[in-house]
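Long-time lurker, first post. I've been practising inverse folding by hand and with some scripts of my own, and I keep getting stuck on stretches where the structure tokens seem ambiguous. Below is the full token string for one chain I'm working on. Before anyone asks, I'm not after the true native sequence, just a reasonable design that respects the backbone. If someone could post their per-position residues I'd love to compare against what I wrote down in my notebook.
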């Protein structure tokens, strides 16, 4: 779908402040290079699908295994205790699963993010949520963890 930012794939990654770290024929995984949580990643189908219930065929068959594999890679690369998995609607009309590495005392919790939440509208129209209590980490650190995720997939 030409109007869907996520359907643009790698072409839209810099606009969304992330880098692709893995892909197969159905799925792609990107990792944020700006934010408070090194390793924060996004799993999305390459085909334009808006909701989990629209998954079918090979996407439906592989979703669980791909989600588990990507979560393990993010957890290991970010040296996290666990990875929260969030699925939201809203900013994009394209299914995307947030893989959020959690560290004890870190900015994420079971309510998504701790502290006073600030919403910033990006040029792309997407809304980025951040916490006033946890400043953004250096881009170099964010990119380093993204590269570790990529390396775990042998890319």
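-- Answer (accepted) --
I ran through it position by position. Result:
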């Amino acid at each position: 779908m030409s109007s869907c930012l996520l359907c643009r794939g790698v072409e839209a990654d810099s606009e969304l402040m992330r880098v692709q770290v893995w892909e197969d024929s159905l799925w792609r995984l990107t990792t944020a290079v700006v934010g408070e949580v090194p390793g924060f990643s996004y799993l999305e189908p390459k085909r334009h699908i808006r909701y989990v219930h629209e998954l079918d065929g090979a996407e439906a068959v592989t979703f669980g295994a791909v989600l588990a594999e990507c979560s393990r890679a993010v957890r290991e690369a970010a040296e996290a205790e666990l990875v929260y998995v969030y699925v939201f609607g809203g900013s994009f009309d394209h299914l995307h699963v947030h893989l959020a590495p959690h560290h004890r005392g870190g900015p994420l919790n079971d309510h998504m993010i701790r502290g006073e939440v600030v919403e910033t509208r990006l040029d792309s129209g997407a809304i980025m949520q951040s916490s006033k209590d946890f400043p953004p980490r250096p881009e170099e650190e964010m990119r380093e963890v993204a590269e570790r995720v990529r390396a775990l997939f042998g890319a």
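A couple of notes from the structure itself: Strands lie at 18-23, 27-32, 41-45, 82-87, 97-102, 117-121, 127-131. The chain has three helices and seven strands. Happy to go over any region you disagree with.
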